[in-house]
Amino acid sequence: MNAPHRSIATLWQSSIGRKLLVALTGAFLALFLLGHLAGNLLVFAGREAFNDYAFFLHHMAHGAGIWVFRALLVAALAVHIAATVSLTLQNRAARELYQAKGTLKATRSSLIMIWSGLTILVFFVYHMLHFTVRWGNDYNTADRYRESVIRNGGPLVRHDAWQMVIDGFSVWYVSLFYILAISLLASHLAHGVQSVFQTLGLRSQKTTKPINLLGYGYATLIWLGFVSIPVAINLFGFGQ
User: Fold this and answer.
1) 173 close to 228: Cβ distance less than 8 angstroms
2) Average pLDDT of the chain?
3) Relative to the CA of 173, which of 89, 92, 146, 160 has its CA 20 to 30 Å away?
4) Which domain holds residue 21?
């Protein structure tokens, strides 16, 4: 086993190391959500703007960029989940004598962190299959909005991501499942953002209140942003 592998193994064997991995991957995933939200909100700018954004993502670095980022995202998510589950099981085994006291001190978000995380994982898999792998849908259409772009003697044919989003959220149970998943994600974030600062040693008596406000504020921002899309489409008929 070479030095990098030994370092990773040592980090994983330590509970402090796993907490650090949870914090770092959590911070990465939280920042990704903010960027993902900014891109998703382009749906309100119309078909052309949103499809331009989707086309850019799928073709940056000649198509390799999106796959590199997906690999990083999946790896970060896998490490985050594995380390969290490992720590939860370890803490549960060690807390038998202090279970009542620990439960009283735990927040509702921390109690359901592992369950909300697993539900979010199910949602992530569905989201990847539907929007990334495009399993069960075909929205490759001639782009009428870019007549100046010609490929093989005809209009550019590209994935109509905007219409896919509109059609998807027009189904009430799809919107309901999405809102439920985002609500669980927001609950997860509210506690998780605070935990990142604590694990990194940035939480003190003076900074506890601002960090708590940051966690709840960030979670609220993410929730409002993502939920606004299915609500606008399903309840108010946006894009239909």
Assistant:
1) no
2) 80
3) 160
4) 16-234
